[in-house]
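Hi L., both proteins are below.
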Amino acid sequence: MESKHLTHAIRTAAFNTVTALARDLRVNTGYAHAADEAHTLIRQALTPSSDIHATGEGQMTIHLDPMPTPRATKAIADVCEHLTATRTHYPGTGSPFATRSRTIPDLTQTIRQCQESWCQGSKGRKITV
């Protein structure tokens, strides 16, 4: 019976966390689809692995992986900025934590025209790789 209560308490805490973060996403970001996608986006942000770094000053920094799309990554980054600005404390420690969202690399900066002769298309056009 105690394991059932513990499981219920963990599920309730997880639901409350997702609900609070989804509310922050709707209120504190300019994410256009927040009304429809807030809970899903927060669950997606919390599902992959992330890194936690503790500093000597008693602060923790949590780095979240980027989301599948740039607009979703921007929305999560806005929530992270809001949480950091509010000096939210890690539960039970009284130590503040900062949240960061890693950005998606800009692949347009790495695409360039191929200069090799084998890159020439059938009509002499260059192929971008």
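That was the first. Here is the second:
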Amino acid sequence: MVGSKKVDAVVVILAPNKGFKRKAPNLGAVEVATPPFHNLFRVVGLETFLFTRKITMDIIKKVPPPLSALTVMNIQIQYINLQNQIRNLKQKFHMKPITFLQHNSSLMTRVFLLFCLVFSFGGTVSAQTQNTSDVYQSTDRPKALALLGDRWHSFVHARNGLMGPLALENIPVTYIENHEALTAEALKDIDLLIFLKDGLIWPNGYERDAAVQWMTDEQQKAIYDFVNNGGGFLALHNSHGVYPPDGLYYEIFGGDYGGHPAPEEFMIRIEDKNHPITAGVEDFRTFDEQHMSKYYGKSENLLMRNLSNGNKSAPAGWWREIGKGRFCYLAPGHTKEALGHPMMVRLIRNATRWLTDKSK
């Protein structure tokens, strides 16, 4: 009991079936998780999780600042998240819960208050670390339109891979799958156009030789005018594949589709380490389709190459400036691993910044 309120709390320890006994301060002999799992359950020196279902203002009053009602609410949220983690770990590692102190409200309260103090201190330290990124300093953020998905690449796969990098850059984006929605009108209030989509559709189903090219002359001109007048265009993975030949779209691209072997692990090697798009990016290995892209531009515009274990290599990223606008192509993106690789995330973030830089 705390004041007139009942504290409904238990301390739970998860342990493998072959756990060991160990003395924990003030708690007597308890069973704790053996390595490598014990670090998952460490709270202020005790391998415990404190789960609470009812948290009262009486407890808050007994804990010094800066613990607040919001902090306590966060503890409740953590309780739900930890409960889900425990359920998953129990199923995966055949772990068993051991409950104790259920009938010792005084000891439960002390442990709970200790947890609150540590949680509050951590929150204070975290709050003192302020975000300094310039993308959060203004409401004047670039707007993006992303056309994604084709027969070989799920719209959901592409959308989910882009949501993280674009959110971190604080860029509001509209995701579309319908190629007919790409019009000059749709691009009028957009700063950044993103493609992860090839040039084919199968209007009558996926029968062999039934594909047609979807991009019209009007759409090609709309994209060209968009970039030429100052827009940014980020093309990913297979976005150079099977579009109308010798049209304005390929005039923007400066390269073409060159096929690819079956997905395998290969190296992405950074060629230009001094460009803003490759800032902070190191060579990395990933499992993906190794596109053997054809690149017709200048060598100084080449950002990176891919390199297989069999020593096959091709351009894997480049940049161009067209009129007042900018273009960037990045080849990885067929697999979730490649699109979500930390280096690829950094490339996408850097590219969006460079493409939408208003000081250009």
